[in-house]
């Protein structure tokens, strides 16, 4: 493969025609990379921001997807739901390309500036390919020192009117979700998932369910449960999670409610329940 070539060259010198965004509503779209979603908030021809930045070396594909929607107009900022490698991998290259700031919750700052590493993935939590591979995933995310700023404490998101962030720690200490009251749109990050991340099959054949956070990297299950209850209380009409397809409608609402009520049984791996 020509990964190194891509790293050195211009972001768009490869053919990324397959990298296209999918519109969810007039001003929200997403692009599904092989492992995780990146979300674009803003209608075409308007100001916009990017939420999450996929795996390392996806900058070319992400940029292609964004340019399909916005042309060469850069986003006002990149917001990260948390610092895991599958959400921050291409943040540095994109921020440098666009000359835009990156924001993350202050409790994630140490993890994205090289001061702390996340605990290693836990391959005992499920039987699928992803969890077997997860031990090989980097726990050290991209080093974003000099590019990344802590979000303000009041829940406001810089450059983004009408939205606020909700603290949904558990999966990681400073994990956030984004919510817009107006159309009850929830960008959940890894606080929940709409595919079963421990099953390799689900990566290729997504099932419409609401699941708990990806188990292999979830650090605090008590907090993770509170986070899901918080999200259920928001009563979202749309959910876009970090992994899986966007969901809306009655089934989604019932699924989220059920997950919040039965979090221990549904989300926490059996040997992790105390
Ligand atoms: Zn994560
Ligand atoms: Zn993730």
Automatic annotation (TrEMBL):
Coiled coil: none annotated. Residues 35-243 form the Metallo-beta-lactamase domain. CDD domains: yflN-like_MBL-fold (cd07721). Gene3D superfamilies: Ribonuclease Z/Hydroxyacylglutathione hydrolase-like. PANTHER family: METALLO-BETA-LACTAMASE DOMAIN-CONTAINING (PTHR42951), METALLO-BETA-LACTAMASE DOMAIN-CONTAINING PROTEIN (PTHR42951:SF17). This is Glyoxylase, beta-lactamase superfamily II.
């Amino acid at each position: 493969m020509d990964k190194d070539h891509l790293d050195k060259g211009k972001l768009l010198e490869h053919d990324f025609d397959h990298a296209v965004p999918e519109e969810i509503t007039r001003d929200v779209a997403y692009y599904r990379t092989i492992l995780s979603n990146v979300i674009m908030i803003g209608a075409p021809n308007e100001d916009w921001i990017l939420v999450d930045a996929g795996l390392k070396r996806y900058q070319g594909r992400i940029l292609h997807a964004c340019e399909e929607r916005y042309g060469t107009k850069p986003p006002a900022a990149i917001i990260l739901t948390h610092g895991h490698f599958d959400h921050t991998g291409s943040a540095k290259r994109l921020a440098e390309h666009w000359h835009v700031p990156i924001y993350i919750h202050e409790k994630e700052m140490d993890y994205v500036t090289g001061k702390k590493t996340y605990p290693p993935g836990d391959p005992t939590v499920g039987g699928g390919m992803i969890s077997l591979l997860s031990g090989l995933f980097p726990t050290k995310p991209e080093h974003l020192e000099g590019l990344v700023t802590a979000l303000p404490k009041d829940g406001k998101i810089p450059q983004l009117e009408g939205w606020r962030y909700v603290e949904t720690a558990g999966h990681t200490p400073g994990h956030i979700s984004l919510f817009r009251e107006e159309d009850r749109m929830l960008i959940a990050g890894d606080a929940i998932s709409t595919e079963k991340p421990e099953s390799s099959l689900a990566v290729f054949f997504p099932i419409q369910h609401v699941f708990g956070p990806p188990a292999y990297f979830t650090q605090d299950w008590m907090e993770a449960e509170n986070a899901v209850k918080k999200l259920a209380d928001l009563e979202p009409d749309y959910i876009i999670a970090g992994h899986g397809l966007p969901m809306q409608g009655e089934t989604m609402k019932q699924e989220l409610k059920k997950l919040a009520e039965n979090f221990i049984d549904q989300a926490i791996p059996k040997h992790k329940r105390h």
